[in-house]
Amino acid sequence: MKLKMRSVAAVTAAFAAGVAIGPVVGALAQDGGRAETYRLLNLFGDVFERVRAEYVEPISDRDAVENAINGMLTGLDPHSSYLNQRNYRDMQVQTRGEFGGLGIEVTQEGGYIKVISPIDETPAFRAGVKPGDLITHLNGNSVQGLTLQEAVEQMRGERGSTIRITLRREGADRPIELTLTRDVIRPQVVRFRMEGNDVGYVRLTSFNEQTEAGLRRAVQSLRGQAGGNLKGLVLDLRNNPGGLLDQAVQVADDFLEQGEIVSTRARRQEDAQRWNAKAGDIASGLPVVVLINGGSASASEIVAGALQDHRRAIVLGVKSFGKGSVQTVMPIPGQGAIRLTTARYFTPSGRSIQATGIEPDIEVLAQREQATANIPREREADLRRALRNEGAVQQQPAGAAIPPLQLPAGVAERVTRLPAEGAPAFDPTKPETDFQLQQATQLLRNLAVAQGPGRRAAR
């Protein structure tokens, strides 16, 4: 029992240190709480020793303790968790925006891994991997039964290491086998192109350390390609799960001249924070349409909410995911880190995003089936132990409510909510099937015609 008692003593000492500071009037209540804490920690020690001694197979002490810690955190809400050293390193790689791998953007279809697009000048691109290819085997082992994340982890690895992939390609008589050498990959978190010769399209796939700089380069390039003919920008945040808060703030700031971007409210009032925009609009007042859907979460909702509240952009699509909580990553020296929910997000008008999401200004469905689907897409409010929305909006100065969307007569009415019957299903490898994007680009063109030259929309 020596191990148990040392563990309990160390933890209880930490608790004692934590409660030593506080109002004198709370001393009796704290003493009672401290005694209960000791009893509960002794319970943990007893269970730990019993499992360690009598489980059917030998177990690792580290695994048992890490599982206990993770259970404590995941029991709080869906987004708090323990990151062991490997997971913590993986998270740092994702936020840094580079890793060892093959250079392909993928999704899952029919149990296989489907290539959305190879990244230019990467091992996959140079080997001739094409959009629409299905990856069926990795190093000779079928990918069926693997989650998308598990398959991605197998394709990643140290620069210079090799992997054998088997592809099934439409029109090919037999599977294609390729041996690829991994390299340092910098994912294209920002993709952009011209839609026609007058509308710029920018897609943000996540918010890592490269996102805002990539957005600036994209807008500058699009303005150059359009040659003075740019009527507006589409900012696509669909299925963007979020990422770094500071990048979301900077992206929103890129389009705003002034005012609040987002605020957070924590357990203690003094920990509340607020971020404000600085002068400067990279789009120079051009109309912006932001695309969102049920996969737009967290940082994506911060950007969409800020631009909507300031009427700097028209938000189009379907309601976002509703992840309005802040996770702080707290490193534990030599032991990984904990990801702990510490606050809630609020938009400039004081709306809490948590479990509600961002409602689009104009609803447009990606497919007709969405209008009659009996099983809606899962959102934050459906997750087990999701934080509640506290109901009322955050206290804001008078006049902070969202101004009404004012568009020229007939512009919003020309937007079609549903694709035509028989329209092809959306395929991310085929932009011509993207009905929501089609409606966004047409909205910008109609807006330009209705307003005439030199005027700003959605203000």
Automatic annotation (TrEMBL):
PROSITE patterns in the record: PDZ (PS50106)
CDD domains found in the cross-reference section: cpPDZ_CPP-like, Peptidase_S41_CPP
Domain PDZ as annotated: residue spans: 88-170
Matching SUPFAM superfamilies: ClpP/crotonase (SSF52096), PDZ domain-like (SSF50156)
One Pfam family hit: Peptidase_S41
Recorded coiled-coil stretches: none
Signal peptide from the UniProt entry: 1-29
Keyword Lipid metabolism appears in the UniProt entry: no
Superkingdom to which the source organism belongs: Bacteria
Keyword match Nuclease: no
Keyword field: Hydrolase, Protease, Serine protease, Signal
Protein family (similarity comment): Belongs to the peptidase S41A family.
Identification of the protein by name: S41 family peptidase
Native source species: Craurococcus roseus
